[in-house]
């Protein structure tokens, strides 16, 4: 496909298109997803001939998003013109329409009076020092399933805790779009039939507040997925009617869930009011004491618990490997020391601690150079949601540690084993194949960093033009792309800058060669223009 001079604008009805989570596509391709196991909320990507080779327009009246930290509590209504959640959840204080803005009081289904008070309550239940849920830096990575508009994750940030707030594109449509517009780490996803795209032992705490998930279905396969994702001694905080209601139906569910988790060797460590907190075991000893034939079984030793891209969930318990650090928190230092300390799992991917520290130094220098390049146009708080499209060991995100932003670290399928290092550092990320569209709404990231991404997909025979269109879909108006790649790749991309309307500001340099340079490289930084209504009707 050639579009050097001009690229069409998609119809306005596609202003919120997510190509691989488009239910219209399911109907058009006559797919038959199993609705009872949420297959219709899982990824189904269009074949090349059905892709929209056009730029996704913003909604009418779109404005540059309100900047963090103000955005935590309010966004422009025009940017996400959906108000039904404000009416449906009015008694729970999820969100309130106020003139041109939508405001977020911090409520949730089980914390009507604010996520901040609820978080302190969880810390009190666990008897953590000072009623602080981060427990001296040992609780850092949290998975919040069925997160709503991610107010739980928003208020965790104040505690130096980062949550991967997860929800599907379901009847509460746009909840993740609201979360990202607010500047809160979040992503579209569902506990369905496929493993979530994260390695084993990625999180210290999983959370479900009235997340409307049937945890007992299919032999407890969804709880077993949480078990895979939690580290040794990790917690599951569960706020739901079956934890406290005394009617026969809720008692029946509670008893069945309690029995299942007991067979999984989880223990109730605290129960108060509407919430119960379980803890995962620290070692295999409990599993080995179970009666023969006890369900769920242990997973086969040939199963790779870190394989997560397009891998079916398994109804089995992931045992700890013999070489694993079995102490609570997997031998990781508390946050923030763990960000720069070499984690024990480096040896699993064949990287030495010396290589790890050298990588951190190189990215520290590279990021300083990027910011020097952009200093004439970058404004305070203009970047909040950042994506590293090829995260490797997390050096780029680590170099941004002193800036008030968060990074979605993306590992290619080929390099997915390295994502465990991202989580061990106290960062978050996901596995993704850049030959396909990413699972996010349009206009959700302020900065996209693509190091050798185009070279990699070109080697696999995928389309650079498709990736450019996808990056434009993800990128907010006024947002930046940093593309670091071979000379030939940068020269090729340069042809499309005007067609993409990425010529709001441009800079191209030849960077200093370092140990990570794959031959001669160039760095292209471009800024996406805010489209005018007149431009969109051209």
Automatic annotation (TrEMBL):
Report TM segments: none
Q: A Gene Ontology MF term for this entry?
A: methyltransferase activity
A GO term from the CC aspect: endosome
Indicate yes or no for the key word RNA-binding. Answer: no
User: Where in or outside the cell?
Assistant: Golgi apparatus membrane; Membrane
**The EC number(s) this enzyme carries:** 2.1.1.-
- EC main group: transferase
Q: Give the GO biological process terms.
A: methylation
Q: Does the keyword Transmembrane apply?
A: yes
Which UniProt keywords are listed? Glycoprotein, Golgi apparatus, Membrane, Methyltransferase, Signal-anchor, Transferase, Transmembrane, Transmembrane helix
Q: InterPro entries from the entry?
A: Put_SAM_MeTrfase, SAM-dependent_MTases_sf
Q: How does it sit in the membrane?
A: Single-pass type II membrane protein
Q: Which Pfam families match?
A: Methyltransf_29 (PF03141)
Query: What PANTHER family does UniProt report for this protein, alphabetically?
Result: METHYLTRANSFERASE PMT9-RELATED, SAM-DEPENDENT METHYLTRANSFERASE
Q: Which family does it belong to?
A: Belongs to the methyltransferase superfamily.
Q: Write down what this protein is called.
A: Methyltransferase
Q: Which organism is it from?
A: Gossypium armourianum
């Amino acid at each position: 496909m050639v579009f050097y001079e001009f690229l069409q604008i998609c119809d306005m009805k596609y202003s919120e298109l997510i190509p691989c989570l488009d239910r219209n596509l399911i109907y058009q391709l006559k797919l038959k997803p199993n609705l009872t196991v949420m297959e219709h909320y899982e990824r189904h990507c269009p074949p090349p001939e059905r892709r929209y080779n056009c730029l996704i327009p913003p909604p009418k009246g779109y404005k540059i998003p309100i900047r963090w930290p103000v955005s935590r509590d309010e966004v422009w209504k025009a940017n996400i013109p959906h108000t039904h959640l404000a009416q449906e959840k009015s008694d729970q204080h999820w969100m309130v329409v106020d003139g041109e803005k939508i405001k977020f009081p911090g409520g949730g289904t089980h914390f009507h009076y604010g996520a901040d008070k609820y978080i302190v309550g969880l810390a009190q239940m666990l008897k953590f020092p000072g009623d602080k849920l981060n427990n001296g830096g040992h609780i850092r990575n949290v998975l919040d399933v069925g997160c709503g508009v991610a107010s739980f994750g928003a208020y965790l940030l104040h505690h130096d805790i980062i949550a991967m707030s997860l929800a599907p594109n379901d009847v509460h449509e746009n909840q993740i779009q609201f979360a990202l517009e607010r500047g809160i780490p979040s992503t579209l996803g569902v506990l369905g039939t496929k493993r979530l795209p994260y390695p084993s032992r990625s999180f210290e705490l999983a959370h479900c507040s009235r997340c409307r998930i049937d945890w007992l279905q299919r032999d407890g396969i969804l709880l077993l997925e949480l078990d895979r994702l939690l580290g040794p001694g990790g917690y599951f905080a569960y706020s739901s009617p079956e934890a406290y209601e005394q009617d026969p139906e809720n008692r029946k569910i509670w008893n069945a869930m309690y029995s299942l988790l007991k067979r999984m060797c989880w223990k109730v460590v605290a129960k108060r009011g509407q919430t119960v907190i379980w803890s995962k075991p620290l070692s295999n000893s409990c599993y080995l004491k179970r009666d023969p034939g006890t369900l769920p079984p242990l997973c086969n030793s040939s199963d790779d618990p870190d394989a997560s891209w397009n891998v079916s969930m398994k109804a089995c318990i992931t045992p700890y490997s013999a070489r694993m650090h079995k102490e609570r928190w997997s031998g990781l230092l508390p946050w923030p020391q763990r960000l720069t300390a070499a984690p024990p799992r480096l040896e699993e991917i064949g990287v030495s601690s010396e290589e790890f520290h050298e990588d951190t130094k190189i990215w520290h220098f590279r990021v300083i150079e990027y910011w020097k390049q952009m200093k004439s146009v970058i404004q305070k708080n203009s970047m909040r949601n950042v994506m590293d499209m090829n995260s490797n060991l997390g050096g780029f995100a680590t170099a941004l540690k002193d800036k008030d932003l968060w990074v979605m670290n993306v590992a290619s399928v080929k390099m997915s084993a390295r994502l465990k290092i991202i989580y061990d550092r106290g960062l978050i990320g996901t596995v993704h194949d850049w030959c396909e569209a990413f699972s996010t709404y349009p206009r959700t990231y302020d900065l996209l960093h693509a190091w050798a991404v185009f070279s990699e997909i070109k080697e696999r025979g995928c389309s650079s033009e498709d990736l450019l269109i996808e990056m434009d879909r993800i990128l907010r108006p006024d947002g930046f792309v940093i593309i670091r790649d071979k000379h030939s790749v940068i020269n090729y991309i340069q042809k499309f800058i005007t067609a993409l309307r990425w010529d709001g500001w441009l800079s191209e340099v030849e960077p200093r060669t370092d140990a990570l340079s794959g031959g001669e490289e160039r760095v292209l930084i471009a800024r996406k223009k805010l489209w005018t209504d007149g431009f969109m009707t051209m």
